[in-house]
Amino acid sequence: MFFNDVATAPVGDSIGLRILGMPSYWDEAVVTSPALRKPARLTPKSKGAADSAEVYGPGQMQRLRSDIKPGAYILTATFHGRTVATARLTVTAQADARIVSFQVWARGKGSDSSVTICLIDEQAAPDEPSLVAKSPAFPGPVTLTSTGSAADSCPTADGSDTLYSGRVPLRTGLAAGSYPVTVISHHGRHTSTQEITIGESAHPSRSAAGDRPESTRNRTLWQAAGGGACLLVVVAVVYTVRRRRRRATRS
After folding, report:
1. SS3 state of residue 243
2. Tell me: the pLDDT tens digits for 151-173?
3. Would residue 43 be called left, alpha or beta, if left means φ above 0 and alpha means ψ between -120 and 50 degrees?
4. Beta strands of 5-111 (E only): which ranges?
C-alpha cells in the first residue's frame, strides 16, 4: 500500500526510511543526503533480521532541510563505510496552506476583555513554529505559537494538523463594530482573514468556525536496489495511518 513509482515530499517535510536485504550480521546502516537535516541511522528490527525496524511513527521520521531547492536528491545508505543501497527522492516546493479552521473570540468586558485566536493549518510550513496576527482591535501584533497556552481553548487539531493559538487584550477605548483579524503564514505566501464583532457592551461575539474539509494524503514508497540491499523511502505516512486508526476506533 505504500508503493509508487516515485517518492516525493515537499521542502522541509518528513520521510520514513527502511533498508531491506542486509546480511544477518549487520548492526547499523547510515543514510545521508544533501536533502536530510542530519544522517539517519537504521538498525535491524530484530537480531539477525535482514530488514531494518519500521520508522513510520511520530518522532521517528527524518526531516528534510527547509533551505533546499526543489529537485531530485539521492539518499545513500552505507554499512561500515561501504555504499550498500541508494534511493532517489523528488523534493517539491513547500505545500500551500490548507486552513481548516480560523476562529477569533473574546471573553470578559471592558478593560478585562481579551481575544483568543485559533488557526488550524492542515499543511503548515514545517519550519514555521509561530505566526503573527494583526488587527485594528489589538494594541499591537500578537504571536500565535503551535504550543501556546491558549491551545486549551481551541478546537483540537486533527492528526498531523498544526494548531496556532494566542491571546491578546482588546485595544483601550475600542468603538463598537466589526474588525478584521489577519494572519499571514507560509513565509508571507498565504493570508487568512477573520472578523471579530465588538458590541456596545464591549462583549465581542465569537466568529463562526470553518467546516473541516475531508482530505487525504497519498503515501508513497520508492525502492532502489544497490548490491543485495534496497533502501526504501516512505513519504507522508503518519497522517494517513492516524486517520485510519481514528476511523477504526469510531467504527
Report:
1. helix
2. 778 877 665 688 999 999 998 88
3. beta
4. 7-10, 14-20, 29-32, 40-42, 62-63, 71-79, 82-92, 99-107
